[in-house]
Every structure is written in C-alpha cells, then in structure tokens.
Design brief:
By secondary structure, this protein is α/β, with parallel strands linked by helices. The protein contains six helices and 13 strands. The protein has a domain of about 170 residues: Spore Coat Polysaccharide Biosynthesis Protein SpsA, Chain A (Alpha-Beta Complex).
Length: about 250
C-alpha cells in the first residue's frame, strides 16, 4: 500500500497538542521526590518548557497538560507563564497515558493532535521534528503516526527497540527476546476519532497503538536528528553534558 504524502504547501499543522506530564518518574528517583520529571532542567530550561516552546513554534494554538504526581509544582510553573493557550487537566488518581488522553478529549476536540511524552527530549535535524511529523500525517491511512529513531542512534539508550517498519511505514511490535530497528521517541499525532471502545479508567496508550496495529493503521516516520533517552539520573546527566557541549560528535549538522 502506498501512503501518499501531501505537498508541503498543503500540510496542515495540528493546532492542538497534549503533553503527558502526570507520571511518577520512579526510575528518576531521588530527583523526582520533589520535582516532577518534566520539570527537570537541561541547559537552563525545563523539559516541559522545551516541549511547550517547540509546539508554539510550529503554530500550535492550544496545549493540554495532564498532571497528577506533584501536580502543584507544574500548576505553579505553568501559571507563571500567564498563557491562556495552555490548559491543565488535573487527575485526582493517575490515569496512565491512554486514560489521561481520554480524560482530556473534551479539550482536545475532534481533529488530529500532537501527543508528547513529558520526558521527551530531542534535537532537530535537517527538518523541524514536529513539522516533519505533520508532513507525513494522512488521516486516510493512519490512526496514529509515531516519530521513531533508529535504535542504534538513540543517545544513552540500552533497550531493544520498539517497532519494525515495512516499506509503507506500517509498524509492528518487537517480539520478546528480539531486537527491533526503531525506538519510539514519545512524539506522535493521533486521530481522536479512533478512540472507540476504550477501557474505562486508567490504561496505557499502548492499548490504542496495538488496536491500530491490528488495523494496519499505526505508521512511523524516522527522525533525522537526535533523541535523548531520559529515564534515570545518569541519563539526565548525560543529556545535560551533551547539550552543554553542543552535542559534539553526535550531530554532523551542527
């Protein structure tokens, strides 16, 4: 199946986005005892602010941020921006990624929207990463479009990857004890009209992705820049050093 791509002049950037910022960040302890993971700082800027600014830069006009763990820290920080384009979706009990999106759907609307993990840290390559994602989006052929990085290029990543991709960009899961060529970066575009018959309460977006795989409507696009895996304090320190040194030896386009 050939997935057509619209000419760049006809590309529509999603105007709405959601940042998933409600997680506990347990692998980042002890740093996340008092600070939510998205509020950790790299080169003088929080991870959360990096995502917010990147979204506004490409023309997003509304950002929903879900909060639960240490919610007051994020609420206070976002309130200080005094920006009515940002809406907070507070969860009394954590709803996980999928449940958090479902809870925020009244704010997200019925058009495709960006989703960014609260700990996603990337550096653009030759293309703006979010623009690149939007250029590849096609509602006729996909329910979700994921930004992927080659597993071997992921900075400080020791996992086995997440997905295989066929010649049309359609994704399938890595099986247990297998190594796959692509890791998910925590950036995607999702069609909210595909959220049907979802579980009640807390559930992972992986449920939605698996449903899309069954329909052959989970598609990937390959990032041409850098992605930093931020899971533990040592990962954070690695990213801070790389940012401070201009991503030396890792980014030939710098």
């Amino acid at each position: 199946m050939f997935i057509e791509q619209l000419p760049s002049s006809l590309v529509e950037i999603p105007k709405t986005a959601m940042i998933l910022a409600a997680g506990h960040g347990r692998r980042m302890l002890p740093l996340t005892e008092r600070i939510p993971k998205p509020m950790l700082v790299i080169l003088g800027k929080t991870i959360l602010d990096r995502s917010i600014d990147n979204l506004f830069c490409v023309g997003v006009t509304k950002i929903i941020i879900n909060v639960s763990h240490l919610a007051s820290v994020i609420v206070e920080h976002v309130s200080a921006r005094k920006d009515d384009r940002i809406i907070l979706s507070e969860e009394e009990l954590p709803l996980e990624t999928g449940g958090g999106v479902m809870n925020a759907l009244p704010h997200l609307g019925k058009e495709p929207f960006f989703i960014i993990n609260g700990d996603s840290v990337w550096v653009d390559g030759m293309k703006n990463t979010l623009m690149h994602l939007a250029e590849k989006w096609n509602s006729n052929h996909m329910d979700a479009l994921l930004m992927l990085t080659p597993t071997v290029k992921a900075e400080n990543f020791d996992g086995f990857g997440d997905f295989f991709m066929n010649q049309d960009g359609i994704l399938s899961r890595r099986k247990e004890k297998m190594v796959s060529p692509f890791a998910y970066m925590g950036l995607s575009i999702i069609n909210p009209l595909s959220f049907v018959n979802t579980p009640d309460g807390a559930f992972s977006l992986n449920w939605f992705y698996n449903e899309a795989i069954e329909r052959e409507r989970l598609v990937g696009v390959i990032h041409d820049g850098l992605w930093y895996h931020i899971s533990t304090p040592s990962d954070l320190e690695f990213a801070r050093l790389k940012f401070a040194n201009g991503h030396a030896k890792n980014a030939p386009f710098f």
